[in-house]
Amino acid sequence: MSFFLLQLLVSFTTNAGSPHQKALSPNLHNDSTWLSLLHHEPSWFGSESLINSPDFFLSQNGKIDAASELIATLEAFKSQPQSQCRFPARKIWLEQQLPNARFPEVDCTNYQAYRRAFKAESVSLVYASGYLGNPASMYGHLLLKFNSKNNHEFLDNTFNYGARVPDGDNKFVYIYKGITGGYSGHFTNQKYHHQNLTYNESELRDLWEYRLDLPQEKVNFLLAHLWELEHSSMTYYFSLKTVPIS
Length: 246
Hints:
By secondary structure, the protein is α+β, with helices and mostly antiparallel strands. Helix content is about 40%, strand content about 20%.
């Protein structure tokens, strides 16, 4: 899932063609960044989102129809200004593609507090090596770490994607549900010292950090999208199921 988010950053650009042509284009809903923001993947009948949470969509058909979700988002941002606070990454992208679209001013207090709490200046991809005590972790694990020069690195914030597994599931149920998508996957925001304690000190796994060469605007865009995802769920598979949209 961290790889999917990196694909979102690759597709996000401030100079992707003429904004005026984009505004007139009937295919704006097929833009790779928009599809990535919705986590839409190719399906038998077009595309379908991996997100299962109904409140992630502003259109009733948004899960399977990227065009209707685009229209619903534009309408909501104008008629229900507070919806901009729920989807700040969509707002960033829409203002970039449609510079003549004027959305009402709105005070997003909670989102701004979230941004201030991170104070992120760069992003690192952290890889935790495999753990023999858990077969599902044999290939290792990826998480995103947001770096701030004002913090000790253990106080930096991370985003981690994982399954919520009930305590009562035995190993056979665990394996079956993990393979067939029986668990719900969620993003969690935790301090890096928690990840270090879990992976490095408790499970004795190596942690490899790769700092990404991203401009500040892409760091902000990624944080904005993670705000949109923090309370959303997806069907979780132990094996990689997502196919990046180019």
